[in-house]
Design goal:
By secondary structure, the chain is an alpha+beta fold. It has one domain: Porin (Beta Barrel), CATH 2.40.160. It has 3 helices and 11 strands. An 8-stranded antiparallel beta barrel has the order 1-2-3-7-8-9-10-11. A hairpin with a 2-residue loop joins strand 10 and strand 11. The N and C termini lie far apart (50 Å).
Length: 222
């Protein structure tokens, strides 16, 4: 429980730091725009590029089996006029570092004299093949769907227009839970997009970045 609390606290601090940095960048951008408005020619205001985006993400995840890297793959639909954002990750794959289990049959032992690691079978009380102790990475497959409301539809960061979204989602497996979301999404006229999201539910915390490409652009490439 202590390890889980530490990892959860670390994830929350990381997410908070990213949101604070982006907020600071937005504040600086807003100040520079105000100071230069009187001396520069007004340009057309950017508009949000609504559409359906194929997305790929990379983040960190903490669930009951362990903590590790999470790779969500799916689609994001942005409808700013409706102040809505829908995300469906058809494959949410996590590579987890399994948490220590004192009841595990196989246990790693470090020999101070030789400086080597050995694998000990607690059932037979004998040393065994080290490979039986090295299988400590689990692959976790799931699916997530979340529906978000856009309280802010004019977020500027480094000349990029984006949105802030909050909402609720459902994770299908491992664990099966309802979670809350908080994040940002920045589409562009080129058809590319980038975003960040924090998700928290029962025995489930995720924070990561995602990149997207408008499916209409993909269709043109094909």
């Amino acid at each position: 429980m202590a390890d889980r609390g530490k990892s959860a606290t670390l994830l929350l601090r990381l997410a908070l730091a990213v949101f604070l940095l982006l907020g600071h960048a937005f504040a600086q951008q807003d100040t520079s725009q105000t100071s230069s408005a009187s001396s520069t020619t007004l340009e057309p205001e950017p508009t949000l590029q609504d559409g359906l985006y194929a997305t790929f993400g990379v983040g960190v995840i903490d669930v009951e089996p362990g903590s590790g890297v999470d790779l969500p793959l799916g689609f994001t639909l942005l409808a700013s006029r409706l102040r809505a954002l829908l995300t469906v990750n058809v494959l949410d794959m996590g590579l987890l570092q399994r948490k220590s289990n004192t009841l595990s049959r196989y246990r790693r032992i470090f020999d101070v004299q030789t400086g080597g690691d050995f694998c000990f079978d607690q059932q037979t009380q004998q040393f065994t093949n080290y490979n039986k102790c090295s299988g400590d990475t689990d692959v976790l497959r799931s699916m997530t769907v979340d529906v978000n409301f856009l309280p802010v539809t004019e977020l500027y960061v480094a000349d990029h227009l984006g949105v802030i979204h909050v909402g609720l989602g459902v994770r299908a497996l491992k664990p099966r839970t309802v979670y809350g979301t908080l994040g940002m999404f920045f589409p562009s006229a080129s058809g590319k997009a980038i975003g960040a999201q924090l998700s928290m539910g029962r025995q489930y915390i995720y924070f990561g970045m995602k990149w997207g490409l408008d499916v209409r652009r993909i269709a043109k490439l094909i």
